[in-house]
Structure formats: C-alpha cells, structure tokens
Design goal:
3 strands, 44% helix, alpha/beta
Length: 144
C-alpha cells in the first residue's frame, strides 16, 4: 500500500479507544495472468481471507451489491457489535471481488458505495467511517 494510505488509516485507528482496536490483516492478491481464470485467483484469496476468521466472528463482506448504511446506522451497528463482545471481521475483495465462499460466510453484505472504489481508498474510507461511528456513540464533536 502507498504510504499515504497507511498514514490515513493509522490516523483514524490510533484515535480509536483501547477497547475498539482495529487489526489489519493483509492478504496478497493472487497472481492473475492473461489466460488465467479469475475465479481461481478469487478462490485462493478467499482461502487466505477465511483462514483469519474465527467461527465466532461477526463477518461483513464489502460488496457493491450489499446493503447501504448511513453513518448513524453504522454507529448503531457498532454499538450492537460492542454489546455482543465478539470480534468483527471485515472482508474486502481483490480486483475481481470476493469469492462466493466469503459472501456465504458473511453475516451481512455491506456496500460503502455503488461506485467501484480502489482497494486502498476503501481502507481509508472504512477507517474514517468506523472512527466517525464511534464518535457518534460517544457524543464526540468530530461528527458535527
């Protein structure tokens, strides 16, 4: 990832309270050649993504066709996740999206936007929105 992406994510992740720490686990994009079937690459990526997901995790798959939430809805979901006491795993696909195995494992499909966004930018948007949602739950002035 470009340095500005890491710096952008770190800016928001470092602001999060200790009980809401975010851990990023990167999975290498499977190699794709001109003659390769993208489904094979997506399957390899899915295996790696799902190997980091615990059976007890709440899993959200970021998908263009998923549900759209406004920031207040995300804040409410964040409160519910906190109340559950479990971990939440967010799955972001590679250039061809997520394999069916990831979508099947997901408890919900979530769409940040109907636009196709580049993977690095999704990270920064996601980091900022998680931070913004937390500020709403604590009545912090950031969200105004």
């Amino acid at each position: 990832m470009p340095q500005w992406i890491q710096e952008g994510c770190d800016t928001y992740f470092q602001r999060m309270p200790a009980h809401l720490q975010v851990m990023v686990r990167e999975v290498a994009v499977a190699k794709r050649g001109r003659e390769d079937n993208p489904t094979v690459a997506m399957t390899r990526e899915a295996e790696q993504l799902l190997s980091g997901v615990d059976d007890r995790d709440t899993v959200l798959a970021l998908e263009v066709g998923g549900k759209h939430w406004n920031t207040e809805q995300l804040a409410r979901k964040l409160e519910l996740w906190q109340e559950s006491g479990g971990n939440v795993s967010l799955l972001i696909g590679g250039p061809d999206g997520l394999a069916a195995a990831c979508r099947d494992r997901a408890d919900q499909l979530w769409s940040l936007s109907p636009l196709t966004l580049p993977h690095p930018l999704v990270r920064v948007i996601l980091a900022e929105q998680l931070y913004r949602a937390w500020t709403i739950t604590t009545h912090h002035p950031y969200h105004r």
